[in-house]
């Protein structure tokens, strides 16, 4: 089965539970939708010592009111790469697998990738490889309101839509480093799952449905 997803930065676990559904199919990542702020396109949520923490990639302003996702450029405003990496390190340095994966993630916060879509795609491909997800990721060729022959999750997985509205997604609890302090926090960024659970992440993803 083919699936259709929005581009996302360190997307939530709900997002990654859709990828095993592909089987031998393709996961199409939407490139031709209009960019919208306050979405997972440039925002993820991790858990640090104080609870959930949102990390947002700044983007360059465009002259026109609307701009395609594929054309959105990342801004260097606020030294965000340094801040995001420091936040990830502070939140997860005591997890079982942060040191194991940090050399894979660090380059994304040291080198500049001009376009947000490319940054997200490369990061998603890395994560799929680390987890062992075999989904084939491809950019879309055009925008379709009602695409045929694929499961469309573009409007379902957003910060403004509760994951509870997804009837196919039931969060499976796993070890979180701050669980005793905050309780289990469901549907955080895939980074939370990977750094806490490592190779067992695929088991959790398959159990979250």
Which terms would index this structure?
four-stranded parallel beta sheet, two-stranded antiparallel sheet, single chain, 6 strands, alpha/beta
Number of structural domains: 1
Q: How many angstroms separate the termini?
A: 16 Å
- Report the principal-axis shape: globular
Main pleated-sheet profile: 4 strands, parallel
Considering DSSP H and I runs of 4 or more, what fraction of the residues is helical?
25-40%
Radius of gyration: 16 Å
**Mean pLDDT, nearest integer?**
95
Strand order of the largest sheet: 5-2-1-6
Proportion of β residues?
Answer: 5-15%
Low-confidence stretches are none
SS content category:
alpha/beta
The total count of helices amounts to 7
Q: How do the SSEs run, as a string of H and E? A: EHEEEHHHEEHHH
Tell me how many strands there are: 6
Descriptive notes:
With 209 residues, the chain is α/β, with parallel strands linked by helices. The chain has one domain. The chain is built from seven helices and six strands. A four-stranded parallel beta sheet has the order 5-2-1-6, with no helix packed on it. A two-stranded antiparallel ribbon has the order 3-4. A hairpin with a 2-residue loop joins strand 3 (43-48) and strand 4. The model has no long low-confidence stretch (mean pLDDT 95).
């Amino acid at each position: 089965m083919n699936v259709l997803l929005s581009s996302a930065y360190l997307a939530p676990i709900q997002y990654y539970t859709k990828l095993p559904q592909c089987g031998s199919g393709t996961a199409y990542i939407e490139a031709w939708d209009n960019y919208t702020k306050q979405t997972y396109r440039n925002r993820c949520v991790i858990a640090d010592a104080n609870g959930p923490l949102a990390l947002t990639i700044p983007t360059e302003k465009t002259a026109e009111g609307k701009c395609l996702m594929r054309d959105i450029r990342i801004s260097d405003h606020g030294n965000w790469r340094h801040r995001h990496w420091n936040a990830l390190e502070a939140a997860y340095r005591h997890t079982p697998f942060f040191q194991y994966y940090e050399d894979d993630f660090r380059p994304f916060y040291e080198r500049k990738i001009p376009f947000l879509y490319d940054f997200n795609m490369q990061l998603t491909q890395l994560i799929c490889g680390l987890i062992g997800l075999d989904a084939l990721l491809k950019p879309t060729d055009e925008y379709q309101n009602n695409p045929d022959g694929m499961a469309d999750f573009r409007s379902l997985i957003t910060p403004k839509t509760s994951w509870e509205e997804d009837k196919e997604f039931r969060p499976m609890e796993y070890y979180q480093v701050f669980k005793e302090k905050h309780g289990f926090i469901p549907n955080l960024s895939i980074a939370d799952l990977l750094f806490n659970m490592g190779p067992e992440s695929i088991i959790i993803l398959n159990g979250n449905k």
